[in-house]
Amino acid sequence: MFASILQRIGQAVFVMFCMTIVIFIGMNLIGNPIDLLISPSATPAERTRLIAEFGLDQPIWVQYWRFLVGLVQLDLGTSYIFNEPALRVIMQRFPATMELALAATFLSVLIGVPLGLYAGLRPYSPVSRIIMTGSILGFSLPTFWVGMMLILAFSVQLGWLPSGGRGETVRVLGVQWSFLTLDGLSHMLLPALNLALFKASLILRLTRAGVAEVLPQDYVRLAHAKGLSARRVVFVHVLKNVMIPVVTVVGLEFGSVIAFSVVTETIFAWPGMGKLIIDSINNLDRPIIVAYLMIIVLLFVTINLVVDILYTVLDPRVQFSKARTS
Amino acid sequence: MNLERRHVLGGLGTLFLPTGLLSIAPAFAAERDGTLTIGMSTESSSMDPHWHIQTANSSVSQHIFDRIVHMDENQLEVPGLAESWRNVDGNVWEFTLREGATFHNGDPVTVEDLIFSYARASDVPGAIFNLRAYLGDKTFEKADDRTLRVITEFANPIVPRELATTAIISKKVGETALPEDYNSGKACIGSGPYKFSQYIPGQVIEVERNDAYWGDKPDWSRVVFRPIPTGGSRVAALRSGDVSVIDSVPPSDVEGLEKDAGITLGRGTANRMIFLSFDHGRDVSPYATAKDGSEIPNPFKNQLVRDAFDLAIDKKAIAERILSGNGAPAEQLVPAGIFGNNPDIELRDADTARAKEMLAEAGYPDGFKLTMHGPNDRFIRDTAVLQAAAQMLARIGIAVDVDAMPANIFYKRASGGDGGVPEFTFFLVGYGAATGEVSGILRNLIHTYDDVTGLGSNNRGRYSNPEIDRLIEEGMATVDDARREEIYQQACAMAVADVAVIPLYYPISVWGMESSIQFAGRSDERTLAMDFHPAG
To answer: Where are the beta strands (DSSP E) in B244-324?
Structure first.
């Protein structure tokens, strides 16, 4: 197991290295931040001076070498926009995204698994049909639109929940968290629900399909024949076997919520990382883009690792070192 | 299966229960001496007032930091930390410091603080949009305890306006401050009407009233800025009472909010011109070809063609229909009320028939082929504006392709690479000068491009008219305001007659607010709590 973890870390480092090369070449092709940000009153001499100051007049491989030297010293550069180290800018926004992603994932499991289980167990009941139709809506309605509708319904019309922002936060371990205050929770509910809707539909359908597949199997029949309570059969024998694909999807979806929740974050003015990366791309703020994508790669590798460990817990036949490494 | 339904659904009830209990919507109307919450479309990128001079940063820093000269809502100079100033002799200015102005830490504002601020503002490491453009030609010295002497290289009539760009910080605090000390608030100490209270990036900026302020005390004891980048969410936040004021009301929401009894809108015509620029420089321009794609001489060298384009494009229609009133049709370089606006220049009515005739006179009876370029994420509905202009040009026989691209790609190509030639033939750009009068646009956009002097630095079309150049240079050295305005007005009239560029519109900034709040509008697009007043 230990060797396997080391192998994973090796893979992560390699992917991150490739990432930096791609970003460096890509950003260089697009343009330079000077042309975008410079004062319209600046003289050409001033422009040339700035380009030299930022080292943007150097050949790309020199810039890349400088970046690698900084990286070894854990210095990812200073943001062109915020005048703070790139890593710090991202880390300031990371907790907000993290707690929103956790809340959304929690909600989606809480909604998706029980509903999927029900629809799988009673496939022909009218309630199941409603659930399945509802899940199609969850899939197909665009997040942007649903977000606006949630705001219109719960903030503007009913006035129950705030329309956006993060609300009151509490500082724990040097980081601001919203979920510890009632006000913070009320701010988090709508964006979390917005993010959870698609995922809940996905989990619901996976669970239902899994249940339908497991139910006719011999071991389930045997469990019933042995006279186990329906409750025990469903929650121990059926659910546990259904969970493996669900855990994989929850893991990957969790990663993508953290990395790409930009739409929800923007609509609800949630101060997370999603909006940061879009702004940084628009402003060609290279240090932030590089640092952000490296963190995301690291995150996905970690999530995959956690998912693989969870497999071994759910299914003793799976050995960690042989688990798939996708 | 004989599973009881409640086993599965039982747990779900808890999901739907607590929403009602959690409702704590703070829907209080803003009151005098209370808190004003403002929803901002763009977030200030730093609390360092010298870091990046863009509207969002300047809006926030204006609350905490004073300048020696302030700009009123029409961008006319009014006394700030300097109670008066005078031009001593062409290139020498003297500013008399106000007595009794103190920083938030209690220290008095001294001439040394001013000199220190200008030195720092010209040299913040890593700052791209820095203030050297406004401070570079000046040396500062202390004449006496209350007098700052400013000496410029050449006679410069707009020294007070240029100094109005730079926030004054305390020398004692600033000397030892690190960049991050501004964001933490430690070094965020100015002499302005509000004091720094809290800054959480992406989330909130809070300031508290400075009761020791030398000038008029603002009506709000606390101001909270919340970044809400999505237009629809900003409007929803205003409607639900989460915020009392928002900036940049999206064009599509203007009509709906106007009907809303609880909300009023405030407007200000921005001192910024969005325009179409021609390639005047090259003999053959890459994106203008004959209709079969073969090379033709650059048609925009011909005044008749430029005139025909100007007549073909209906600016009123663009302002009314495409921008839904979030833009005023532009007839010249700066809107009325701004120094240098020439009241004799009138908006030309679009005239397709006449435009077609002119095109024929110029030797293009069948028109030609043209690709129009522009950004698609910079101005209000920029792509739609490009397409509308393209359709209007199609009516006079020009086959126009529209190529809109993200600003981060567009500007590099529009300006050209290092010392390179600007790429486009006919393109949409904008210009607004922080000095709030016409000279910026004349010297940077209309004056001939000159590497050495830096004049014409934004003249991407390489327009050149020696006569206008001479006027601009004369104006730049004329200290007498009335005389200078006359010269500039003449230069504007000539540039417009020449169709150096096609002015399209001046953006109209629209603010939304609770109907109990009064607000007069501003031309510099800044959102300042000091401008908003509770009724009664």
So the answer is: 245-246, 263-269, 273-278, 288-289
